[in-house]
Design goal:
Layout (H helix, E strand, L loop, with lengths): L1 E5 L5 H9 L5 E5 L3 H9 L5 E8 L3 E2 L1 H10 L4 E8 L3 E4 L1 H4 L13 E4 L1 H5 L2 H7 L4 E4 L3 H9 L6 E5 L1 H7 L2 E4 L9 E7 L11 E9 L7 H10 L5 E8 L7 E7 L7 H11 L3 E11 L4
Parallel strand pairs: 1-2, 1-3, 5-15, 7-8, 7-9
Antiparallel strand pairs: 3-4, 3-11, 5-11, 6-9, 6-10, 12-14, 12-15, 13-14
Keywords: Amino-acid biosynthesis, Aromatic amino acid biosynthesis, Lyase, Phenylalanine biosynthesis
InterPro entries: ACT-like_dom_sf (IPR045865), ACT_dom (IPR002912), Chor_mutase/pphenate_deHydtase (IPR008242), Preph_deHydtase (IPR001086), Preph_deHydtase_CS (IPR018528)
GO molecular function: prephenate dehydratase activity
């Protein structure tokens, strides 16, 4: 049996995990802070950690990326994209009138994870600007707090699965600002992922340029360009060594088993760059 660490039951991570491992014998280990998710795998208690790393609306999840880069050494074994469908959750008995119509002015506080709340800004401003908005550690935690405070006029932004877990009602479905709201997840751990196959292969690397090297980034990109290697993402992040010092995170649409990619990496290292390979892995596209 495979043991997988992830954020709490009923979260988008939980829904996404069940999609990736559909038909596989899996034991789920739920944790609240993302640090505990990572540490359960580095400590050998789980085979994999599931990490939400990027969102259509909010971009990269900086805290999770920093943990992947600075705190642990867990290779990426797979990636997949899953829709992030957020809903307004609460008690119908508190928020609906006698005709079954949702009355927003009955809601005095909305709770959710900051990323989920940011995905629903237009909805919140348009309908719940009068209410207090409070950030909590996860969407599931928000739903739990609403459950534990009946009669308070509280509501949560969260998943339908989260509402089911805590026995609350979905007051309004699909309150995200954009219909194409997806989250990219990474499966990290030391065990190769062989449960599913994909025709899409990717490699993620970190590159740190030599200090005060004029044209260094141009030379790095040229090593990929003349070989016609496609990059799907490039992002700069602080190295945390000194102010103004950055590394570059690259997602490459090619396997490390190819001939061209190792040659490009060797060329980059030859100009004095430090290269760290985060993983070479299958990429899965969501199919409803």
């Amino acid at each position: 049996m495979i043991n997988v660490a992830l954020l709490p039951e009923g979260s988008t991570s939980d829904e996404a995990a069940r999609y990736l491992f559909a038909g596989t014998d899996v034991s789920w280990s739920y944790y609240k802070p993302i640090a505990d998710v990572f540490l359960s795998t580095t400590g050998g208690r789980t085979d994999y950690s599931i990490i939400p790393i990027e969102n259509t609306i909010e971009g990269s999840v900086s805290l999770h990326m920093d943990w992947l880069v600075h705190e642990v050494d867990l290779p990426i074994q797979a990636e997949w994209v899953y829709p992030s469908i957020q809903n307004l959750i609460g008690r119908s008995s508190e928020c609906l009138n006698e005709n079954g119509v949702l009355e927003y002015d009955r809601i005095v506080k909305v709770l959710s994870h900051p990323v989920a709340m940011a995905q629903c800004t237009k909805f919140l401003r348009g309908n719940l600007a009068h209410a207090e908005w409070e950030h909590v550690s996860s969407t599931v935690e928000a739903v739990r707090l609403v459950k534990e405070n009946p009669g308070s006029g509280w509501a949560a932004i969260g998943t339908e699965a989260g509402a089911t877990v805590h026995g609350l009602d979905v007051l309004q479905r699909g309150v995200t600002d954009h219909d194409n709201n997806f989250t990219r997840f990474l499966l990290v751990g030391n065990r190769p992922f062989t449960e599913r196959k994909s025709d899409i292969q990717k490699t993620s690397i970190l590159i740190e340029l030599p200090e005060d090297y004029p044209g260094g980034l141009h030379q790095v990109l040229s090593a990929f360009a003349w070989r016609r290697i496609n990059l799907s993402k490039i992002e700069s992040r602080p190295t945390k060594k000194m102010l103004g010092n950055y590394y570059f995170y690259l997602d490459i649409l090619m396997s490390l088993d190819s001939v061209l990619l190792p040659a490009a990496i060797q060329e980059i290292e030859a100009i004095g760059c430090q290269v760290r390979i985060l993983g070479s892995y299958p990429s899965f596209v969501y199919q409803p």
